[in-house]
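Hello forum,

I keep getting stuck at the same step: I have a sequence, I want structure tokens, and every attempt I make locally crashes halfway through. Rather than fight my setup again tonight, could one of you with a working pipeline run this one for me? It's a single chain of 204 residues.
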Amino acid sequence: MPDQYVENKRVYLPSTFFGALWVTSKHSGPFMMLVFLGGSLIGRIVYGNINIFDLFLPILSFFSLGFIEWSLHYYIWHENPLPIINKPLKTPLVRMHRLHHDFPDDLNTLFFGWKAVVVATLLVWFSVMIVFDDVGLALTLIFSFSLILFVHEYAHFVAHSNINPKALWLKEIINNHRLHHFKDETKWMGVSSTLPDKLFGTGD
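Reply #2:
Ran it on my machine without issues. Output:
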């Protein structure tokens, strides 16, 4: 077992990327993401009629992840006023995120739980089926959704680990989230990318 892992407790955090991946995969939320990721991929292959869109959508989702994270983090988790209406969106998610800031090394505040993942994934499925009535599209969207959600959870946990990479671009990404937690929580909203913070003026 790489590094120390004790579920539902504050723990010694891993110091390797593999150790962080192992801990992430073991938690109920990210594990459920992997289940949906594999299940939707198999389902899409079996369903057939695969086209270029099935490749394009996951790639687009992956490269959009940084902006999705920034938007959710800035407007939802931290309740900044929404564009146009200039009012914050009040949700129970703010309280959950507050707990994460209060206990940043607690696995229960670091990861989404499996119930939240199941509910979110079912919302994606039923929304697509109601609007488009397309099983293939629904499976591709669930694959894309599960992929970026798992990448986000992994990148987030890496930022909270004891990993100190040598590559400057990785160091910049990891330090970006650490600055958000331990210097100024109104800034550095990016998790897997620093580009949105640079574009929107929320970083240095």
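The longest helix spans residues 52-77. If your local run keeps crashing, start a new thread with the error log.
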